[in-house]
Structure formats: C-alpha cells, structure tokens
Amino acid sequence: MISQDHPASMFKSKIKSSLPYALAVAIIGFVSLWIRTRPSDSVFLSNGFVRFGGNDPWYHMRTLNVLLENYPNRVFFNPMTNYPNGSYIHFGPLFDQMMAITALALGMGSPGQDLVNTIGAYFPAVLGALTVIPVYYIGKYLGGHKTGILAAILIAFAPGQFLSRSLLGFTDHHVAESLFSTLFIMFFMLAIITAKKKNLHFEDVLNKNLTVVKEPLIYSVIAGVMYSAYQLSWPGASLFLLVALVYAIIQYVLDNFHGELSDYLGFTGIITFLVSAILVLPFVHPDMGFSLYYYSWFHVATAIGAVAGFGVLSFIQREFKNRNLKTYYYPLAVLGIGILGLLATRIASPSIYSLIINAPHTVFGVQTGGPATIAEVSSIFYEGGAFTLSRVFGNFTASGFFASLLGMFILTANLFRKPKPEKVLVLVWSVLIFLTIYGQNRFAYYYSINVSILSAYVGGLLLEKVKWSQLNEKFKTTVKSPADFQGFLKFVKIEQVLAVLAIVVVLIYPVYGTAMETTTGTGGPDGTWIEACLWLQSYTPDPGMDYNAVYEAPEDGELFDYPDSAYGVMSWWDYGHWIETIGHRMPNANPFQAGIGGRRGSIDEENQPGSSTFFTAQSEEEATAVLEAVHPDPDKAGARYIISDVEMATGKFYAMTAWTLDTEGYYQPYWTGSGYQYLPSTRYFDSMESRLHILDGNGLKQYRLVHETWAYQTQGEVLYKQVYNLLYGESIPEVDTGFVKIFEYVKGAKVTGTASPNETVNIKTTILTGQGRTFDYSQSTTSDSEGRYEFTVPYSTEGPISGETRFDTAPAGPYVISYGNTTREVRVNEEAVLKGEEVKV
C-alpha cells in the first residue's frame, strides 16, 4: 500500500488539485482563439482571395513563400523591394520557420498555396491564444491561482494592439514577440523562485549537488531557449535583456541590504544568457557587423555581456560579504563598475558603445519629423502634439490602465519591506515596458500583458481582503455534489459578492466589450488596392526577375545587378509590401521606411530623392529629376509606374511633407462662414501628387493615367476640387474619381507642326478610363518666330502593343490641335510615346 506521503501519491494529489485550473486555462485559451477568429469573413473573401491585415503581414507571407519554394534556404537579401537598392531582411527567421514547418507537415512535404495562406492567416490567432498560458503562470506565482485565472481572462480579451496584432490574418511577428518574451519572463521567474527556495549557492554547482541545482538549471535553460526564440522573432529583443539586467541590479542591491547572497540570481542569469548566446550564434550575419536591426555580433555580444554582468554582480557581492564592507557601498561599486564598463566599451568597440548610448532614445524617446508620422512609433500619450489618454484607453481601457498603475504602486511599496524576487521582477518589467509605450505606442502589445497581470494582482488583493481563500476552502470541503451547492451559499458574504461584481464590472466587462468591437473586421488593403495590384501583376511588363528566387546580396558598396527590363513602382511607403506581394512588382519605397528620401536632421540638409521628394515636387520637371535621381544610372529612371490613392492626395499628404522637413505653405486658413479652416493652397496644387491624383495628370508631358479603380464617396477629394476651382477659376468636375490610380512614366511622343509665328497653339483630347469616366487632357504652347511648335504628349491614340503596358485608359479619339481658326487631328502610336519619337502634323 502506498503511503499518503509517498512522492507518487503526492504527485497524483498535486495533479488532481491542479486539474480544475488547467481546465479553466484551457477553456480561456479556446475562448481567446475564438475571439481572434471572429473576423474570418473579412480575411477569407468570397472570391477565394485571402486578405491579410496591415502591411508587414504581407511581407511575412512573401518571405514564407520564398522559404517554402527554396526550403531550407531563407531569403536574406531581397532585390524585389526598395528598387534599385534592394533591402536586407531584418525580420527574425523563427516566425516564418514555424509557419513553414507547419505547412510542410500538414501538406506532406508539398503544401499548396491555399494551405499556406490558411496557416499564415490562423498562426497569429493561435499564438495569441497560447499567450494565455504564461500569463496565467506569472499571475499565479505573483498572487496565487485566483490572480492567475483573472490574468488569463484579461489577456484573452485584452483589446488594442495586442488583440489587433494577434487577430486572424495579421500574420506578423509581433504576436510571437509577445508570446516568447512572456514565456521568457515566466521561466526566468520560475528559475529564480526555485533557486531561491532551494537556497542555491555556486558551491552547489561546483559540488554537483543535483538535488539543489537540477530544477533551477532546467528552468534557466528553458528561459534561455525562450529568450532565444524571442530574439529570433525580433532583433530588438535586447529590450528584455535590459529588463533582466535592471531587475538583477535592483535585486542584488535589495538582497545585499537584507544580508542575503544572490547566488540563486547569478546562477539563473548566467545559465539563461549563456544558452541564448549559443542558440543565436548560428543566425549571425558577419557582414552586418554590430547592427541592432539585423542579426549580428551585437546579439551575441549583449548576451555574453549579460553573462559577465551577472557574474560580476555576484563576485562583488561575495567580496562585500567576505570583507564585511558596508552595504550602502554596494550600489556605488556597481555604478562605478558600470561606468568603467561603458568607458572600456567605448575604447574597444565604439559601434557597440554608440548602440548602447542611443538605445534609450531609440526605445523610450519620442520621435520627431518624418518618423513621427509613422502611426506605430509615435508616443501613446501624444496625438497631434497634444497630450491625450484616448489611445491609452483604447489599448487597455481606462480601468485596466489605472489598475496597472495601482498594481505598480503596490509593488513599489513592497520594496520597503522584504519583497519576493518574483514581485520585484514583475515591477521592473512593468515599469520599463510602461516607458516604452511613452516612446512608441506599438509596444502597447507588450504592456497589455503587464496590464492584465497587474490588474489581476489588484483584483487578487481585493479578493484576499474579503477572505476569498477561506470561501474557496469551504467550497472544497462542503460541495461534493451539485446538491450541496445550495447549502454552501450560506457561507458566502455580501462583501465577497460585491468584490466579484466589482472585478467583473470594472476589469473584465470593459475589455470584453472593447474586444467584441475590435473583432468585427480586420485591416489591410481594401478592394481597390487589391484590384490595382492584381492589375499591375497582369497588365504591366514582366520586370525580368524570378519572383520566388533566393538572391545573393551584392558586394559591399555595390548595387544589385538588375536586368535591363527591371523597373520600379513609385508610391508612398505604406503600400510597398502590397505592390510587391500582391502586384509582384518592385516598389521604390516600403514600410521599412526605405526609399522615402527627404531629410532627417534639418531643413538645411539636401533633400534626398525618394517618394516624399517626388510627390511634393513643385513641377513635373522637378518630379522627373527626382525620379531620374533615384536610379544611379543616368540612363535609367527609378520608376516606370506611379501609384496614388485618395489618402495620399488628402490625409497622408502632410506625412510626405514631414519627411522632407518642409511642411509650410501647403495649406492656408480660409474663412468658411463659421470660422477658419485650413485648406489646400497653391503650393499644394503645384505638387506632383495633386497634379496626378486631383487633376488626373492633365497637362503633364511624360505621365499618363493607365488604370484607375472604382471610386468611393469621400469628402476629401471633392472638397479639394472645390478649393481648386475657387483658387484658379476653373471648372473641373467636383466628383470622386478612382480611389487608386496607376500612372506610367514615358518618354512621350513629340508632336510637331507649324502655325503662324508666335501663335498660341492648343492640343486637346478626351481620355476615357476603364471605369467609363472621361476627362480632358490639354496643353498649350506658343509657336516660335518661324511658326514651329512642339508638344510632348504621353497618351497613345492607337492602343497598347505586345509586351508593354496593356492600359485600359486612353484617348477616346485623336488629339485635336487648334490655333486661330485652324483645327487639325493627329494620331499618336504607342511606339512614338515609349521611344520619344516625332509625330509631324
């Protein structure tokens, strides 16, 4: 017979007591998954198209497909974007590899595109649901099972960026960051708890005392694996290494003041980051030097530096104890060694020193200039330059946000007692992540986890105040069957009911309600952009690149060797990944903020060629000069096609000017009867973006509209056209036109003829678009002293030719040239337009 104290019996008892909580977490996890898959109709469209959300998810699907096409070889340099430079891929390899392995397994080694798309769409939702598990355990070790369960519920419904980035179809690495960073904290916490509980000392390691070392060692190794997984999901994972180091310094100081050795912490830190240094080493690209944004020696060096840091902190502490030095000298010694370490780093490796010094501003600082227009990297507390809590409440709800602050306040107050290491860790982790959302609101997907845990901690303390644990024990002893439940109710006190109601109403219901609103649909390209990109893929010439090939990066300082048939597509950077992944064409600018051009430091800098300088150019000649300057070869243009949408012409236009650091004069105040309103000025209408989108390229010599999508009803386009007509006394139709428009940059045919000397000569035609819309195209010039005149026109009246753009927008008839009482018709073929040939009238 097995004794009740036998290890096997104790293990069975532990499993039995944990089973209800495991079941509860599993149910919460499935609810979390259900929430994230609610908007399936907006992802899996009725026509079979899978609409991934946002921008970067499209790039992950791009890299996933290249990986599967060339498995196990992964693309590192991509020439199909940021034309004509290409881009190194800074995305971590793990997220794509996990999806690829899943696809290969389910597809029996040869997955079809439908399966790949389905796996890609569901992957973020699954990872988001799995985050419930580490959040539960962190909550449990912070405040017991009740705290863990409440934390799991809160993160399952957590709204804002954590939910939006883990929705069905948002196939981005951010949810993997959240999951693996939380798993790292969980196992790091477990390693610390078990090492301290077993009173681990370095002598136990030397003496191979496995009874003491085994469990902390296992947890520390797993913590290292999780940190590596986090690192291989996002190269900026050093953020959590900073969390660990700051926590370690504070914990060492606290232990020193309490007369305790921190060997348990030193052991955990050394093992964790030694494992991570080993695991990340195979992914280092030596050519990247010590870059923070690509997998480089920096990631190995920081992990080894953390190992050294934990070792030095332990060594100093032991020396203090052996020499009976005063405890308050310890923080000074740590500070001094830290300063000496920075000085040594500055001498030994200025590049690493620069990264370390600039890291706080990069992560915690508020962006200015063009970067401030990037939605996800602007401060969560500022919008339009004004302080606001609206985005805070949108991400965490008001009650959740203030509960998290209260939780941090309570944990801070505990520092003056003798806090448990796990509570100090959660406090430091939460404070640092809170600081990150001040710098960049994108980190709200991290802080949502802290909000859930801290809110649950506050809720758990409330339940402790009303003696919830006693009620729980009474439930276990009195309720053996459903019939016993009525008798149990007499033990329930009114304050316990009120406490539960308060938690449900204040903490759970707000996140639930916001989550239900968030999951009604997903972001990503709308129908017009999908249609425009698919048109681009089908009706423009093949650029001569193997779309799914793995290309070698060019030698340092050299450009990628593109075929002569290659060309770029100029648009705003937001749309680069859609152009590449849906359109199979090479954007000049992309959401990695490559190819934008403009200025970064001051208005005195040279305005670099790129999308911002092209679209804000004040004349066709200036814009063309930018387009030509994008490509280093003087005989080649940076782009053949230009894509614009209504948002670029209205709301996003300010962002273009911000990247040039020259924002003045595009808008001016107009009296509207009830007050002044800032509306477009002549400088705006002189911009290339206005000339293309608002005015349809009318009068331009080398840019022609080749395709437009259907129109949406917008106030912006109509209003801008009304202002234009008032400013210039014109009468362009005040209607919405194609939401997305594709233009082609051509040499233009040279239409020449003779008239009377110094005569005003006009050329005009009516353009018919694929949507059945018509607009006028016209130019005017003056003949010279001998009566000669010349027009450069971009449209062919004879239709497309094989191997070139198969445009659906063209003149409805011939060009009409008029001067005096004379009118003449002239037709222009496509070869003349493409080659810049002369057409004589």
Written description of the protein model:
The structure is a single chain. The chain is α+β, with helices and mostly antiparallel strands. Among the domains are: 173-364, no CATH class; 530-744, Rossmann fold (3-Layer(aba) Sandwich); 747-840, Immunoglobulin-like, CATH 2.60.40. The strands form 6 sheets. The chain has a 5-stranded mixed β-sheet with strand order 6-5-7-11-10, with helices on both faces. Strands 13, 14, 16, 17 and 18 form a 5-stranded antiparallel β-sheet that branches. Strands 15-12-19 form a 3-stranded mixed β-sheet.
Topology summary:
Elements: H1 7-36, H2 56-69, E1 77-78, E2 87-88, H3 93-106, H4 113-130, H5 132-143, H6 145-157, H7 160-164, H8 174-197, H9 202-206, H10 210-231, H11 238-257, H12 263-280, H13 297-323, H14 329-348, H15 350-364, E3 382-383, E4 386-387, H16 390-396, H17 398-414, H18 421-439, H19 444-465, H20 468-478, H21 485-488, H22 494-518, H23 527-539, E5 568-570, H24 576-581, E6 586-587, H25 611-616, H26 620-630, E7 641-645, H27 646-649, H28 653-660, E8 667-671, E9 676-680, H29 682-686, H30 688-694, E10 703-708, H31 715-728, E11 740-745, E12 749-754, E13 760-768, E14 774-782, E15 788-793, E16 810-811, E17 815-819, E18 822-826, H32 830-835, E19 838-840
Parallel strand pairs: 5-6, 5-7, 12-19
Antiparallel strand pairs: 1-2, 3-4, 7-11, 8-9, 10-11, 12-15, 13-14, 13-16, 13-17, 17-18
Helix pairs in contact: 1-4, 1-6, 2-3, 3-4, 4-8, 5-6, 5-8, 5-19, 6-19, 8-10, 8-12, 10-12, 11-13, 11-18, 12-13, 14-15, 15-18, 16-17, 17-18, 17-19, 18-19, 19-22
Membrane topology: Multi-pass membrane protein
GO molecular function: metal ion binding; oligosaccharyl transferase activity
Keywords: Glycosyltransferase, Magnesium, Manganese, Membrane, Metal-binding, Transferase, Transmembrane, Transmembrane helix
